[in-house]
Specification:
Tetrahydropterin Synthase, Chain A; three-stranded antiparallel sheet; two-stranded antiparallel ribbon; elongated
Length: about 375
């Protein structure tokens, strides 16, 4: 009897020791997990407390700078000066807080210990897999590419320590045209494009259902909110800074969804027909004004050059005559026509001087003849 009873006793003692060791290991693992979770929670609480204290100190120390100006109507207007660096810093702090919240949500999604029924179901599924081995391989295997990740659920619980996401490549979402109102009350239609990638697959699949639709609506709302504080000219000239502001604002929200916005760009800006017509008229008026100014300046320069040339030619009559002949030659070469030319000024002056002595001599010859006729009339008795 002793020989027959020894093996069962040894087996019972071995099974008891193995069960005790497994229970002890489970307790140690559970305690380690609790300690790790407690440490992570304490670090989060410390960071949150530190962030709140720094924010209170900043609000207490920083005073709003106001400026007052006196208008024409003797009214005092005050304006508040806002520091852009503080706004960007607040967005970055909001993003950090959102990342902490996402980590907390991820810890909540992690799986806990399985129960007895769950283990039985797992064992039965493995037995079924072995019984239908040739056919079950084709339905149970899933190939995951190098640039992809897989999120594995078992009995409705997320398996920890597995791959962390579907596709790591950069994705794009095109935002369709939507209307916005600018600071100077212009109504515009703007479309944009958003580049993003997945960072946390657990949050991506457990926190949001339709990512593309949610991201599209978020980008539209963010663009409307930011561009409402900018004028039409700023939107056309400062697209790069606007895209950076939109990216920072989106990161503060999308980090809770498990995605990272890499870049946003304003693709196109459309104007209404009435606004296009008014802008075209204004641009045409500006172009005409510039043309008139340029023409006036060119006429001024030409008149100054002509004045200088006239002063130079007035000193040499020969040069004036050569210029006159050169002009005649150019006119005759261009078109064949009859040209009536006035006499030169020198020739006219010479003719006028020659006519003056001839007229004086004629008057002198006519006077003796008249005196002779009068004397004849007086002497003749017949007359």
């Amino acid at each position: 009897m002793l020989l027959t009873l020894e093996p069962p006793l040894k087996m019972e003692t071995g099974s008891r020791s193995s069960s005790r060791e497994s229970q002890r290991r489970n307790k140690e693992d559970f305690a380690a997990k609790e300690n790790k979770g407690a440490k992570a929670e304490s670090t989060r609480n410390k960071f949150i407390q530190k962030h709140q204290d720094s924010q209170r100190e900043r609000v207490r120390d920083r005073k709003k700078e106001t400026r007052s100006t006196l208008t024409v109507d003797n009214k005092v207007t005050t304006s508040t000066v806002v520091d852009v660096d503080d706004v960007v810093g607040s967005d970055a702090e909001t993003e950090v807080m959102a990342l902490l919240d996402s980590e907390r949500n991820e810890d909540g999604v992690q799986a806990v210990g399985l129960g007895v029924c769950e283990w039985l179901l797992i064992i039965l599924s493995f037995l079924l897999l072995l019984l239908t081995l040739p056919l079950s391989i084709w339905f149970c295997m899933k190939i995951v590419r190098e640039y992809e990740r897989a999120v594995i659920f078992r009995l409705g619980r997320l398996l920890p320590g597995r791959a962390r996401g579907p596709d790591l490549r950069l994705k794009t979402t095109e935002i369709p045209f939507h209307e916005i109102v600018t600071k100077d009350m212009f109504t515009l239609e703007i479309n944009a494009i958003c580049y993003y990638r997945m960072e946390n697959a657990r949050l991506l699949f457990t926190s949001i259902f339709n990512l593309s639709n949610a991201l599209e609506l978020l980008v539209q709302a963010t663009i409307k909110r930011l561009l409402a504080h900018r004028s039409f000219s700023e939107i056309l000239l400062e697209r790069k800074s606007i895209a950076q502001e939109v990216k920072v604002a989106l990161d503060a929200v999308t980090c809770r969804w498990g995605i990272k916005v890499e870049r946003t760009e304003i693709k196109d800006v459309r104007l209404p027909a009435e606004l296009q017509q008014s802008i075209a008229v204004e641009a045409e008026a500006q172009r005409q004004a510039k043309v008139k100014v340029i023409a006036a300046e060119s006429e001024k320069v030409a008149s100054e050059s002509l004045k200088i040339a006239a002063e130079i030619l007035s000193g040499s009559p020969a040069a004036t005559q050569l210029r006159y002949l050169h002009t005649l030659q150019s006119l005759s070469a261009e078109k064949r026509s009859t040209i009536i030319l006035p006499l030169p000024f020198d020739l006219l002056s010479m003719i006028s001087t020659n006519r003056a002595p001839a007229s004086s001599s004629s008057t002198s010859t006519t006077q003796p003849e008249e005196m002779l006729q009068e004397s004849i009339k007086k002497d003749s008795p017949m007359l």
